[in-house]
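Weekly structure sync, notes
Attendees: PL (lead), two postdocs, one rotation student
Agenda item 3: pending single-chain targets
PL asked that the sequence for the first pending target be pasted directly into the notes so everyone works from the same version. It is reproduced below exactly as submitted, 164 residues in total.
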Amino acid sequence: MSATLTRVRRPALFTVALLIALAAATSLSAANRSKAVVRTAKNATLAKTILVNLNGRTLYGLSVEVRGKFICTDGACLAIWHPLVVGKGIKPTGAPRLATVRRPDGRLQVSYKGRPLYTFSGDKRRGDAKGEGFMDVGTWHAAAVGSGGSSTPTTTTPGGYPYP
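Predicted structure, written out during the meeting:
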């Protein structure tokens, strides 16, 4: 191999290696990007500051859904309670102590203080909190900022709406 050919190949190989490294770094940062998915709002009905989605809808947690245990998984529950989900690699922001937890169906659901977050189908407008205190296989509470993650202490109170 001639010295001229070697001098041409080295810079070209270096350039290719640099481009590969940049592409890998870009895909890593895109895969772990932060995205605002919640915000806080003062709720006059509850007299608390709560978490809401970007459309201003109240976010709730179910008292018995903790440490990765999901109760709201069937069609009857999901028709009423809609999980707040994000895409793979998204880090939810908008309030401290947000994270994600993998649902049984594989989707990533946003959680607050370890409790998965949902919107309630009965809330039609910003500020509605009609799901507060709703009882079925547990009790649903608005995710309140500065408390244990719900507007009242968590309890397990079966009864109310029966899921099949």
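Discussion points:
- Helices lie at 3-31, 75-80.
- The chain has a mean pLDDT of 81.
Action: rotation student to compare against the earlier draft before next sync.
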